[in-house]
Design brief:
single chain; 8-stranded parallel barrel; 10 helices; 8 strands; binds phosphoenolpyruvate
């Protein structure tokens, strides 16, 4: 059985003070949970403060992005060393909002993953189809293209996949448990890790996950956890997701 993995993507939400207030109230709610991996990805400006508060806790600190070069004249970008010195051990790469609003291609995503892994950061790689692509029955074709481009020449070591259908992100429209499991099954097969219960590679579902649908999603054999936006912004709700993920 793979260990459940519940991740918060705060996107462009929370100041340093709001981050501190969240963590101070969230940590006591989950301090006794030992059988779930819990991750929070605050905005860059909150990383250092979050890192101080999360030290010696059971919560992993991640960033929401990284640049694919290690240093230099790249105004406004962030390097692996900067993330590590701010206390991050993980990074989310290829979120659909990065692909949509910041033109991140699979090739860029591939370079970012490579830089992150070369610098010892764990990666959550996001992939997923648009509504139009699903309606045209092209979901697997899209996943195939994203996996091929994003993982080119890379090993799966240190990588978690997040399947996030774009039509379900922030829309309140969750994929059914069958849709999620089917896509995860396809991804497992693509990765060559099909049905291996002992295989450590985990696939998270993302898209309007809430405390009232987490158990149903986690009941599926190929759903190993969740990447959560909106419902991760309140400590009570995120703690309920963590508890609800235990299979
Ligand atoms: C996300 O942004 O990764 C996400 C899944 O958002 P939400 O949970 O709000 O749909």
């Amino acid at each position: 059985m793979r260990r459940p993995f519940i991740s918060a993507n705060w996107k462009m939400n929370k100041t340093i003070e709001e981050t501190e207030a969240f963590i101070n109230s969230f940590l006591p709610m989950v301090k006794d949970i030992t059988d779930v991996d819990i991750l929070i990805a605050p905005p860059f400006t909150s990383l250092s403060a979050a890192s101080g508060l999360l030290k010696s806790s059971n919560v992993i600190l991640a960033s929401q992005n990284i640049y694919h070069e290690e240093k230099g004249a790249y105004t406004g970008e962030i390097s692996p060393d900067m993330l590590k010195s701010a206390g991050c051990t993980s990074v989310i790469i290829g979120h659909s909002e990065r692909r949509q609003y910041f033109s991140e291609t699979d090739e860029v995503v591939n370079r970012k993953i490579s830089t992150a892994r070369n610098n010892g950061l764990e990666v959550i790689l996001c992939i997923g189809e648009s509504l139009e692509e699903r309606e045209e029955n092209r979901t697997f074709e899209v996943l195939d293209k994203q996996l091929t481009g994003s993982l080119k020449s890379l090993s799966l070591d240190g990588i978690t996949i997040a399947y996030e259908p774009i039509w379900a992100i922030g829309t309140g429209k969750t994929a059914t448990k069958e849709q999620a499991n089917e896509a995860h099954g396809y991804i497992r097969e693509w990765l060559g890790i099909n049905k291996e219960d002992s295989d450590p590679v985990r696939i998270l579902y993302g898209g309007s996950v809430k405390p009232d649908n987490i158990e149903e999603l986690m009941s599926q054999p190929y759903v190993d956890g969740a990447l959560v936006g909106g419902a991760s912004l309140k400590p009570e709700s995120f703690a309920a997701l963590v508890t609800g993920s235990i299979k």
